[in-house]
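Try it yourself: sequence plus adenosine-5'-triphosphate, in.
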Amino acid sequence: MPDSQVMEKLVSLCKRRGFVFQSSEIYGGLNGAWDYGPLGVELLKNIKECWWREMTFRQNIEGIDAAILMHPRTWEASGHVENFTDPMVDCRQCKSRYRLDILFEEVSAKKQKEILRELDPERFKGQQRDEAVLKEFQTLAEGSPGAILAAMSCPNCGNRGTFTEARKFNLMFKTFVGPVEDSGSVVYLRPETAQGIFVNFLNVQSAARQKLPFGIAQIGKAFRNEINTKNFLFRTREFEQMEMQFFCRPGTDVGHFEYWREQRFAWFLSLGIPQENLRWHRHEPGKLAHYAKDAYDIEFKFPFGWGEIEGIHNRTDYDLSRHEEFSGKNMKYFDEASKEKFIPYIIETSAGASRSFMAFLVNAYAEEEAPTAEGGKELRVVMKFHPDLAPVKAAVFPLVNRDGMPEIARKIEDDLRRRLRIFYDDSGAVGRRYRRQDEIGTPFCITVDSETLENQTVTVRDRDSMRQERIASDRLCDYLLKKTTPRAEGNPVRGQ
Ligand code: ATP
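Structure, out:
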C-alpha cells in the first residue's frame, strides 16, 4: 500500500472510531491543534502511564507536575527568548509561509542540480553524483540561502523569485498575566516542560531526600508556534511531552548518557515497535543545540519518512548555571560525603507523548485476510496495539440475545468493568463484532455461548492470532489483568 494511503486511512479511521478529531472542527478547524476522542484519550493515557511507570518506578527518579506559566526570566535564562527561533520566509505572491530549512529539505535532488547549475554553470555542468550535489546544496543553503531562494519557485503558487529574505521567528506563544497588556506582564506558554524541572531541582532534592545521581520526571503540555504544522499529529502547536532530567556529577555524565540512550530505545521496542522501524540520529557536533555536549534522536519510520520521536541530550551544567546566574539563587548541590559543592550535569530524555501516540498508531495499523463464518476470506483492518496500550482491553458478547446469554454476559461485563475498560456488544453477527473490535485494537473478545450455560466457561478470542480458547468465567479478570496492563514486576527496582 502506498505510504500516502496509509496516512489517509489512519486519519479517517481516527475520526470515524473516535481516536482524534480536528480541533474546533465545526468552525473549520484550527491548524496545529487536535482533540483526542474517547479511544484516543485512552491510548494517550496508556502511553503516558507506561512511560510514568517505566521512569518513576525506580528508587532514584521522582515525579513533578509544574505550572505551564513560569516567571518570564526562566525563558531568558534558558536561551529561548534569544535562540528559540526558526528562520522563516514568506512568498510575496501567495503569502504562504515556510520554515527555511524545511523548504530546502523538500527540494528534490533533480531540482537541486538545476538550481546549482543555474547559479554556477561552469562548476556544475557535468553530471555529478547525488550525494556530492546534496552536500554542495546544503553548504550553499547554510552560507547564502538568498541565492537559492532567488532561483526557487514557491511550492504553493509556483511563482519564482517571490520569496522574502529569511527572518527569525520566535516560536514561543506570548500572553499576559493580569489585566494590563504591557511588556511588564508578558508570560509565555512553556515550549518545553524541562525548565519546570530545572527550577525545582533543589526543592525536589531536599523534599525527597535524594542524592546524586537522581532524576525528575514530568509529563505535560508544551506549546510552540510552529511555522508549518503538518503530518497530522507529528508537528502541532499544542502537544504533550514526557521528559526526565537526570542530575549527575560532572565526569559521570557520559556513562549516564549511554545508559539512558539504551533504556529509552528499549522502551519503544518493549511496546511493540520493531527494531527496523527505529533508528538513531546523532546531531553532528556543529549542529548541536547551544546547551548540548552530545545529542541523539530516536527516529521512527513514519509513512512520510523518518522523524524524531524522542531526544536524548547531554545538557551539561548549562541549565542550572544559567538559572543560578539569572535568579541570583544558589543552584549548587552539596555532596555530604566529599563536602563539595558543584552544579550537576544533566542528561535529558525528552519524548513527545503525542508524537509517540502517532508512532504507535502507525505501527499498529495492519490490513490482513481473515476467514469469514461462511468459509470465505475477507479483508480485516486491525490495530495491533501492544495490549498495555490498547484503549479497550476486552469486548464481551452474548452469542445470541436469548437463552440467558445476555444476562451472563452483562454480569461478566460488570465484573470486568471494575478493573478494566470493557466494551459490550450484542448487535450483528459475531464475525462483524470481531471486525469492529479489531479495527480499534481490542486484544481480547469474550463470547458467552451455549457451553457457558453448562460449564461457566467462555471463549476468549485473541486479536492477532484470531485463535480462541475456553476459560472459566471466574478466571477472566486475572487473565485479562495479567495480559493487558503494565506490570509492576516488569519494572524491577533499578537505577544507576
Ligand atoms: P523538531 O526538530 O521535530 O521540531 P525538536 O528537536 O525541536 O523537534 P525537542 O525540542 O527535542 O524537539 O522536543 C522533544 C520532543 O518533543 C520531540 O522528540 C518530539 O517528540 C516532541 N515535539 C517537539 N515539537 C513538537 C511538535 N511541534 N509537535 C509534537 N511533538 C513535538
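One thing you can check immediately is this: The chain is about 35% helix and 25% strand.
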